[in-house]
Amino acid sequence: MADPAVIVVGNEKGGAGKSTLAIHIVCGLLHAGRRVAIIDLDLRQRSMSRFFANRAAWMTGNHQVLPMPVEPDMGDGKALARADEQDQLARFQTAFAQARTEADVILIDTPGGDTLLSRTAHGLADQIVTPMNDSFVDFDLLGQIDPVTLDLLKPSIYSESVWEARKHRAITEGRQASIDWIVVVNRMAVAAARNRQRLEDRMEKLSRRVGFRIGPGLRDRVIYRELFPFGLTVADLSNEVRPVAVSLAHVAARQEMRSLMLALGLDGSALDAPLDAAA
Fold it and tell me: Which of 57, 196, 224, 267 is buried most deeply by CB count within 10 Å?
């Protein structure tokens, strides 16, 4: 059996929407028929793990069956967060080895910050997906700009981390090994703004310099948040699965999610199924 593809959702800044992006990618893959394993390295918060625990509970309570990922047991996250780094690493390596035998895609959600586990995960990635908000505050982790002219000066700390991960991969697996890096703009406001154009211009320049692709993220929609307590995404909605009233906004969000999957080079065909907002 071929080695599973490894997708790492990473950004050293908190609040960029990593876990929201991660759960939508996982659900998109599941509905496309992929066997997915998840590893949540945000040990204290564990948003992705909690989401799928909610999903299992919702299915039981509503007598529904939806696809679920495999999640290797890493024990008590809060206790592990207090453990020695080498103990954390050993637990992660065991979980990753298990995931390799049970899935054809492994998705790893990383914490906001620079940790040994996050660096290790990045070094294992076939694809790194980096969400960022529509803001120069988030861009600062990717590239530094001149405060007077707003010209791009140089790559910043997270870009350097991805460079190190790529270098490690090339050394350990040979020059043919590569990491596809895609940056998606998350929580974008509906209205266009001059600030966004400035940001897009700098992102284009930085993407050519450090080698990432730019893709569409998920807008700041209430519907993404309202489905979280149920462990559901817009990919799960159907005539049978409707924990909330479905509107045209849900239909638009579903197409948004499809665009995200296609930008990542993943199968988004499961999101082609029509969703009747009036049903």
Answer: 224
